[in-house]
Structure of Peptidase:
Amino acid sequence: MQGYFTMPYAYLLDDNLADDFWTIRQVENEP
């Protein structure tokens, strides 16, 4: 799946399970 995944909609609606989502948008190389 190359970095993608599926998540059940019910999981997203559950306040106990889906309260802290974050993503990495950009990574910079060190000089």
